[in-house]
Amino acid sequence: MAKVKKLDEIQTFEWVGIDKIGKKLKGEQKAKSTTLAKNELRRQGIQVKKIYKKRKSLFSNGKAIKAQDISLFSRQLATMMESGVPMVQAFEIIEGGQSNPRMAQLLNSVKTEIQSGSSLAESLGKHPVYFDELYCNLVNAGEKAGVLDELLDTIATYKEKTEEIKGKIKKAMFYPAAVLFVAIGVTILLLVKVVPQFQDMFTSFGADLPGLTLMVVSASKTMQEYWFIGVAIFVGFIVGFIQLKKRSLKFAHFLDRLSLKIPIVGGILFNAAVARFSRTLSTMFAAGVPLVEGLDTVSGAVGNVVFRDAVLKIKDDVSTGHQLQLAMSQTGLFPHMVVQMASIGEESGNLDAMLAKVADYYEQEVSNAVDALSSLLEPIIMVLVGGLVGVMVVAMYLPIFKMASVF
């Protein structure tokens, strides 16, 4: 078995040289060795005077490769192939324009596989972390049908829309989490630093303290004496939760089912799953992938175990001869409008177009719901945070007001 070349073999060289008319030039060249770098520069008509390996900084490994990077790459490759640029040359051009070394190394590895005789789908499939089964299946369909540039453009659009929905949902979750985190931090700071100052003053009063003040003082003492236990429990809970979700399939499935039942948020996640189902199946069907095979891939792309199980059931029903709309209706999961649009698409022969319209509708629904949720949460969270801090402030000043009324 041939040894797969590692991504980290690619190096960056800085060089100084002159071109054919004697003009002095300098720049950078990516290659696996000094010799290969010189050969490439010589091919470009540059006579190398100095060349040396670029020094690596602490951050030279680059940022992690994100879904947006893969989407942009798909769009660039589609444009170049539509313009008639050979695939290997297209990879070289895209690689040369990368500011992230990791992405450049990934593209170089894929290019090397293509040069060794592998198809694009096979080359991408060797990097499943970045190119999933759906991506590779669509590329494979495009290569077989001779419409790879169109399929790559479709993939780019699909990934852009999918990431846009994910970004909306993350935004809806991040804002309240961040505000609550700040509120908890401020509360702890008040309990540990501010309340003890008042506590010394209250002791000198020699009078009975109000119940609210006693409660806050008691919480402050507990926080000062046992804060490390609280931190340990909190960290342990977070780590345990993450590990349990990774290692226990039943727990992960339980969370997926539970997430759809959460008020307001559950509706957003449900609509997002319907949008992913519609968008993915539309993309697969438009690419010429058989419906049963497409449904199998879609089941892994919906992002929720409830929808995954439903799609697998649909696949089984369709494979035995049932219409898609009937199989969808039998699950009892999909809204009536989605089933009707699928029915119209099957009857008219435009299933991909109908499903794309469904995806557009539900993506817009998710976007509107997230914006509404953000607008709703902002005043609620501010009231909660203000109330929490206000209660503590009142608790601290109640004894002072009580003493003032006595005198």
From TrEMBL:
<dbReference type="InterPro" id="IPR001992">
    <property type="entry name" value="T2SS_GspF/T4SS_PilC_CS"/>
</dbReference>
<dbReference type="GO" id="GO:0005886">
    <property type="term" value="C:plasma membrane"/>
</dbReference>
<feature type="transmembrane region" description="Helical">
    <location>
        <begin position="172"/>
        <end position="192"/>
    </location>
</feature>
<keyword id="KW-0813">Transport</keyword>
<dbReference type="InterPro" id="IPR003004">
    <property type="entry name" value="GspF/PilC"/>
</dbReference>
<dbReference type="InterPro" id="IPR018076">
    <property type="entry name" value="T2SS_GspF_dom"/>
</dbReference>
<dbReference type="Pfam" id="PF00482">
    <property type="entry name" value="T2SSF"/>
</dbReference>
<feature type="domain" description="Type II secretion system protein GspF">
    <location>
        <begin position="73"/>
        <end position="196"/>
    </location>
</feature>
<protein>
    <submittedName>
        <fullName>Type IV pilus assembly protein PilC</fullName>
    </submittedName>
</protein>
<feature type="transmembrane region" description="Helical">
    <location>
        <begin position="380"/>
        <end position="401"/>
    </location>
</feature>
<dbReference type="InterPro" id="IPR042094">
    <property type="entry name" value="T2SS_GspF_sf"/>
</dbReference>
<keyword id="KW-0812">Transmembrane</keyword>
<keyword id="KW-1133">Transmembrane helix</keyword>
<feature type="domain" description="Type II secretion system protein GspF">
    <location>
        <begin position="277"/>
        <end position="399"/>
    </location>
</feature>
<feature type="transmembrane region" description="Helical">
    <location>
        <begin position="254"/>
        <end position="274"/>
    </location>
</feature>
<dbReference type="GO" id="GO:0015628">
    <property type="term" value="P:protein secretion by the type II secretion system"/>
</dbReference>
<feature type="transmembrane region" description="Helical">
    <location>
        <begin position="226"/>
        <end position="242"/>
    </location>
</feature>
<keyword id="KW-1003">Cell membrane</keyword>
<keyword id="KW-0997">Cell inner membrane</keyword>
<comment type="similarity">
    <text>Belongs to the GSP F family.</text>
</comment>
<keyword id="KW-0472">Membrane</keyword>
